Amino acid sequence: MHRINNKYRDIGCGEIDVTYAGKEVTMSGWVFRSRDHGGLIFCDLRDRTGVAQLVFSHGDTGKVSELPVPSFFVAQHKLKAEYVITIKGDVRIRPEGTENPDIATGGVEVYVKELKILSESDALPFQLDEHIEISEANRLKYRYLDLRRPEMLKNMVTRHKTCKAVRDYLDDMDFLEIETPVLTKSTPEGARDYLVPSRMAPGCFYALPQSPQLFKQLLMVGGMERYYQIVRCFRDEDLRADRQPEFTQIDMEMSYAGVDDVIILVEGLIKNIFKYIKGEELPTPIERLPYDEAMERFGNDKPDMRFGLELKDMADLASLSSFKVFLDALSSGGRVKGLLGKNMAGLSRREIDLLTADAQALGAKGLAWIKVKDTFESPILKFFPEDVVRQMADRLDAAPGDMMLFVADKEHVVNDVLSRMRLDIAKKQNIIPSNDKFVWITDFPLFEWNEEDARFQAIHHPFTSPTDEDIAHIMGGSNIDLSKLKSKAYDLVLNGSEIGGGSIRIHNSELQKQVLKLIGMAEAEAEERFGFLLEALKYGAPPHGGLAIGLDRLVMLMTGAQSIRDVIAFPKTQKAACPLSGAPSHVDKKQLRELYIRLNVPDEKPAD
User: Fold this and answer.
1) What fold, for 13-119?
2) What is the pLDDT of residues 39-67, one digit of tens each?
3) Distance of alpha carbon 363 from alpha carbon 417, whole angstroms
4) What predicted TM-score, i.e. pTM, was given to this entire model?
5) Which residues in the chain are classed under CATH 3.30.1360.30?
């Protein structure tokens, strides 16, 4: 750790090695562990750089500052876990046989000559040892203690280094780091906005940005050409392990760029990050998989490509059976797909019933199965000619000891259920390799059908450009099948998690108006929500596109953390609460009056 020498330390605890033998050092940090060996007391001193072993000898006549007792040895017994101390001492080579090869400082120890207690500590609510299991509620309530744990320090360092790698790479690529507003206009389309009342404009509200989307497009109109920002974004949505109400994006936008330009640039960025953080040489170019193919083979648009177990269409073979469940699905326009249950032929009937219940909980009407042993076993075999069953097994690459699983339903139900089961099976059978595997998903549909609202909506956002062919259809005014329109959108997926998404944007005002109209937005509403963008596009907007990478999710995957909460210094719970600070909380009624707000809710504290 590079620092200016001062009275507290001239070297970090984790920086001493055999080259410092015979030298005097001054170090500061937390007392981690103490061990009394009779004539000697050993104490591990920890700071951000690592751990050093201190030695206090009964025979030494050291100087103790600001302690009520004169005896240096007795003073050591007053040192407790997490006391903050400063010491001065001599570095010595450890006696042969006492070295610790697991830590960088394991070949030396420091014989203490002077000690000063800077701060005492109460008994901790939990131990900070690396392998101690701690409830997340306690970890978040005492986050400042949790951050002292080695794995949390490692996560924060990795996050910092990732940001540094991003800035270094994009600076070399002539990008400008430009901040965009945090208080902006509410343009709800997708997740809910967080609203901020304005005291200066009674009854009006700002919104915290879900992304800098409109502003980064305006920066392209403004001639900045290459913009990036490591930016905080806010979405009021239901949370899970990889979501937070406030999160961080690596946001980029380029003028005069097509799909290939953005993809090649981002591949260079990811390659740079992995080299700097993990020392891995990421192979490029990264595989590209069209959306339709991803859905057909894996059932979702963020497939884990590290293992097989691909979904297989069984419509042709199902139609040769007399199995009513399959035939009804096909006659109503649905799908029948199969999935290989690797090494699952040994499941009991009860275990299969539980598996079926899981499929039903995911939306399927049921789950058909055929065990592959020396012969086939299943209650549905009577509906299938034997040669058809063998063709099913060949298509799924099923071998003795496996089980074939089938779902028949609407296409989206079949894909969703089997894609989830694919991951569950791979995890339970421990067949997912530890290596990292990226894939680009390209050629997304422009729109998707929202059954709840009974309308089409943009898959990414309504500023995504259609393909050139579909632009001609849209602007030509002919009858358009919205479900068939394609976009210039692309997602970057790592190990089954989407870590980035982007698109080439619409840079023509009339086309943008037409796309908003296609998703049911009246001209007046479009003007109210996005008028400033539509106006800007009239004044010579260059073609442009970009991408945003989820920093939290990327760091989570690189560190192997189980949740993005483990890579954020002060995260929220799944109820969007902060146990440390008590947010969200009630505010003084005077503050509400200043904002012209009157509450119509019970006056009680929000749940944690």
Assistant:
1) OB fold (Dihydrolipoamide Acetyltransferase, E2P) (2.40.50)
2) 788 899 999 999 999 998 765 555 555 44
3) 7
4) 0.90
5) 307-432
